[in-house]
Design brief:
Layout lengths: L1 H20 L44 E4 L4 E7 L4 E8 L5 E4 L19 E10 L4 E12 L8 E12 L10 E4 L15 H8 L5 E7 L13 E8 L7 E9 L10 E6 L2 E2 L4 H4 L4 E3 L6 E4 H14 L7 H4 L5 E4 L11 E6 L5 E7 L1 H4 E3 L8 E6 L1 E4 L3 E3 L1 H4 L2 E6 L4 E7 L11 E7 L15 H35 L16
Helix pairs in contact: 1-8
Length: about 500
């Protein structure tokens, strides 16, 4: 459709330019039409391959290698350059660029000094990444990278050196860059830029999977590290059985761009929302560690909030609470968890006519906001929000589960995490199988218009455009011809009519 529109505009302006040019101008003031051409994409230099043998992976070295602040993301320490510069890097399964702060910023304690690395190579390309809120831009290069509390390997990876940013870095978050772990299709500036994990698998013997255990702010092990500190583990290249209980249930990765999955049913306290399952995946459903909340499409969000509000109606909450605009607080230790319902998401299993259910506790979707709470109060923010870009299973969902990103077999696994927050009455769970029919049809497909139909529409519009432009062009030519024959004197009235603005 975009190509047809460009062709239409080009045709109309060409007609105007040709007709206007057919009348001799009276000096330098003749009508000028500039045709704009798309900028050429800079050439990319291919990063040289470096392959280093990996020793047998010891997952115990990776346990508890994540840190963070509640609501501000989880980060892992990485070493960049020669000699190594250690930086804290946000772990993000919802993007595909490895980018680090490379200039002084008020919110950064340290940043990447490219000039101090003897192994840095400039690619001569720039990159710009906008978000719903915030943006960053920088310069692309490659350098040697390793993960100190990860596999004992070093690789040459693409790095975006962030030179300018707006509302990207977070004050007090303690991370200085972002590690995009998704696929090349959503890498910036284009899909030819190889993401970090692809480079890791290609250059080393690390298997093509990783797993995440995110432990929320309510997990008692982290209290000694500071009231708002959270932790967890990123196991690079495998699965650690000590980090989960029960069975791992897998759902297929529907498309390799984001980690897209298919949700087939949503329940609140066991009651089905009774919506067309396509609504749950409009326009996609993804697993994203870089997003805090469970984000739902507008219709699904409204139905879910209505059900949660009804289930917890023994207490009254301000409307702003359900919109994430107001906090609710209780006296310390008296939070009435029992009045809030369990939210269950059913995901299509590897057997396409079966699903499994992950059950999410209120201890997950009510996020503690500890920097505003006093010693006498526990305060919470509702961590389910409305989305215009599909369902996002963010950190508050992942904090209940051990999540396996099995890229080799194109699937994502869920098991109950050993560090999820629960009470004596309820616990997060992963259960199945549940039978269904043609569950793959729940996935959302962008409507496709036949190309021949688009071309027909484009030609019709071009014809209509020509019919309207021709009289206008004739009027312009007639006016220009008249001005050449009868030039205006300096004492006459000014011509304040503008045909083209």
């Amino acid at each position: 459709m975009e190509t047809a529109a460009h062709a239409l505009l080009l045709f109309c302006w060409t007609v105007l330019a040709v007709l206007a040019a057919s009348v001799p101008g009276c000096g330098a003031g003749g009508l000028r039409v500039a045709l704009l051409h798309p900028a050429r994409r800079p050439s990319q230099q291919g990063a040289p391959r470096r392959r280093r043998a990996a020793r047998s992976v010891t997952f115990v070295d990776m346990i508890d290698n994540l840190r963070g602040k509640s609501g501000q993301g989880y980060y892992v320490e990485m070493a960049v350059g020669t000699p190594p510069q250690k930086l804290n890097i946000l772990v993000d399964t919802g993007s595909s660029n490895f980018a680090v702060g490379a200039a002084a910023h008020p919110f950064l304690r340290r940043y990447y000094h490219r000039s101090l690395s003897t192994s840095y190579r400039d690619l001569g390309r720039s990159v710009y990444v906008p978000y719903t809120q915030g943006r960053w831009e920088g310069e692309l290069g490659t350098d040697l990278v390793s993960v100190p509390h990860g596999p004992n390997v070093s690789l040459r990876a693409n790095i975006a050196a962030i030179t300018q940013s707006d509302r990207f870095f977070i004050n007090g978050s303690n991370w200085e860059g972002i590690l995009g772990l998704a696929y090349a299709e959503i890498a910036r500036p284009d899909e030819t830029l190889e993401p970090f994990f692809d480079s890791l698998v290609r250059q080393t013997n690390v298997p093509n999977l990783f797993s995440l255990q995110l432990c929320g702010a309510g997990f008692t092990q982290n209290y000694s590290l500071g009231s708002a500190t959270v932790g967890g583990s990123m196991i690079i290249g495998g699965i650690d059985p000590s980090l989960y209980v029960g069975e791992v249930w897998y759902t297929p990765i529907r498309r390799e761009w984001y980690y897209e999955v298919i949700i087939v049913r949503i329940e609140v306290n066991g009651q089905d929302l009774n919506m067309d399952c396509k609504e749950y995946n409009y326009d996609k459903s993804i697993v994203d560690s870089g997003t805090t909340n469970l984000r739902l499409p507008r219709k699904v969000f409204q139905a879910a909030v209505k059900a949660i509000e009804a289930a917890s109606s023994t207490e009254q909450f301000p409307s702003g609470f359900w919109l994430g605009e107001q906090l609710v607080c209780w006296q310390a230790g008296t939070t009435p968890w029992h009045i809030f319902p369990v939210i269950s998401l059913y995901l299509m299993s590897e057997n396409r006519n079966q699903s499994f259910r992950i059950s999410i506790l209120p201890q997950q979707y009510l996020r503690p906001v500890e920097d505003v709470a006093s010693a006498q109060e526990d305060c919470y923010k509702f961590a389910v929000s409305q989305s215009s870009t599909g369902t996002v299973m963010g950190a508050v969902i992942m904090e209940g589960f051990y999540v396996v990103f099995d890229r080799e077999r194109k699937r994502i696994g869920f098991a109950v995490s050993t560090c999820h927050v629960h009470d004596e009455f309820r616990t997060a769970s992963v259960e199945g199988p549940f039978h269904g029919v043609e569950l793959e049809d729940c996935g959302y497909n962008i409507p496709q218009t036949d190309e021949s139909t688009l071309m027909t529409i484009a030609y019709i519009m071009a014809g209509i455009c020509a019919l309207f432009m021709l009289p206008l062009c004739l009027m312009v030519c007639q006016w220009r011809f008249a001005r050449c024959l009868h030039p205006l004197g300096t004492g006459n009235f000014a011509d304040d009519i503008s045909l083209l603005k």
